[in-house]
Amino acid sequence: MAKKFQRARRLTDQIAEFVEAFNIEGCQLLLAQRLTLLTEIKSELESYTPENKALRVEFEELLLWIEEQDKQPQEKAEDFKNKYQDKLKKQKKTNFAIKQYTSL
């Protein structure tokens, strides 16, 4: 189980690196892998006895850590999106102005 927790942490770190590198496809792939891994961990923990709370606590801590780690890449991705939308708006205005000028 500890290896799966470590794998989830590594995937989270890689996701942050891919966001920095603007590697959207790679980021989506890693997010899907991490989700699958976390789902597997959750399923395994549900099959454990209720007395084994230490693993459940560790999983909860892992989820909180992932949430914290995802904040910065999420903000970065939103910043990229906003910049792209601004460029798109500017391009539309430029295209409209060129079209108006050429129609004279």
CATH-assigned fold name: Methane Monooxygenase Hydroxylase, Chain G, domain 1
Number of helices: 3
Which structural class is indicated by helix and strand composition? Answer: mainly alpha
Largest sheet: none
Helical fraction equals: over 70%
For the record, the CATH architecture stands as: Up-down Bundle
Instruction: Report the end-to-end length measured between terminal Cα atoms.
Output: 71 Å
Question: Any idea of the CATH class?
Answer: Mainly Alpha
Low-pLDDT runs of 5+ residues are: none
Query: Number of domains in the coordinates?
Result: 1
Order of SSEs: HHH
Give me the count of strands. Answer: 0
Q: Percent of residues in beta strands? A: under 5%
Rg result? 21 Å
Q: How does the overall form come out from the CA principal axes?
A: rod-shaped
Name the average pLDDT. 88
Report on this structure.
It is a single chain. This protein has 104 residues and is mainly α. It has one domain (2-102): Up-down Bundle (Methane Monooxygenase Hydroxylase, Chain G, domain 1), CATH 1.20.58. It is built from three helices and no strands. It has helices at residues 2-20, 24-47, 53-102. The longest helix is centred in the last third of the chain and has 50 residues, at 53-102. The chain is rod-shaped, with a radius of gyration of 21 Å. The N and C termini lie far apart (71 Å).
